[in-house]
Amino acid sequence: ATESTAASPSASGPAGALFEGQVGAHYLLTMLAESDPRGLPGVLVERIELHRAGEGHPLDDVIVRGVTRAGEPAVLEVQVKRTITFAPADAVFKDVVKQLARAFQKLGLSHEHHQFAVATERAFFKITGPYQDVLRWVRKVGSASTFIERINRKKVGNDDMRTFVATVRSHLAAAGCASDDETVW
User: Fold this and answer.
1) Is 123 left (phi over 0), alpha (psi -120 to 50) or beta?
2) Which of 30, 141, 142, 185 is 20 to 30 A from 111 via CA?
3) Residue 1 and residue 12: Cα distance in Å, rounded?
4) By CB neighbour count within 10 A (0-12 exposed, 13-18 middle, 19+ buried), where does 151 fall?
5) Which of 11, 97, 15, 94 is nearest to 59 (CA)?
6) What pLDDT, on a 0 to 100 scale, did the predictor assign at position 3?
7) CB atoms within 10 A of CB 32
8) Can you tell me the distance from the alpha carbon of 14 to that of 92, in angstroms, rounded to the nearest whole number?
9) How far apart are CA 116 and CA 145, in angstroms?
10) CB 90 within 8 A of CB 68
């Protein structure tokens, strides 16, 4: 949703109010339990916000705000989708990357405690396997060049991983965002 089309959770989104509510409830319970939130390890959750497109959050379904152990602010913006395949022809994925491109342009890539996520109700092997591996590598490697080299290395990266990265790169470029290795990483 954009600022001009912001709507309440009960009236919007392909995921529907039930699944969005479940994702929001998960983070609320995490906050109450004072546990590390999924997607923001080492962060103490202070509040949860729902549907904040009107306040300038391109990924607006669930926003988790907290502080790191060092006292720095941390944010996780979650877009909730009932079904998303992350495939090159997936229009839902293309739209989510477009939303990410808008968020990157506002944020800049220097803020490491501002994360983005997609929650999906329906997972497929590629999502739980190679695509999760790509995202795990993104978080663990120290540089864009190391990440891209690992993805492209024979017998380390695989075709599904390379397709996922190429799709993100293509969708970022189509959205008018930088699509160099650093941005993709």
Assistant:
1) beta
2) 30
3) 9
4) buried
5) 97
6) 43
7) 9
8) 9
9) 21
10) no
Q: What pLDDT shows up at residue 110?
A: 54
User: Is 80 exceeded by the pLDDT of residue 179?
Assistant: yes
9 touches 62 (CB < 8 A):
no
Is beta strand 114-122 parallel, antiparallel or unpaired with respect to 43-50? unpaired
Instruction: Give φ, ψ of 37 to 5 degrees.
Output: -75, 145
Give the residue carrying structure tokens 């017998």.
Answer: 155
- The pair phi, psi for residue 116, each rounded to 5°, is -130, 150
Structure confidence at residue 124 as a pLDDT band (50, 70, 90): confident
Contact 6, 51 (CB under 8 A): yes
Q: For the whole prediction, is pTM greater than 0.90?
A: no
The helix/strand/coil state of 14 is: coil
The better pLDDT of the pair 138, 4 is held by 138
Compute φ and ψ for 118, nearest 5 degrees: -120, 125
> Can you read off the two tokens belonging to residue 139?
């978080």
Parallel, antiparallel or unpaired: strands 43-50 and 62-68: antiparallel
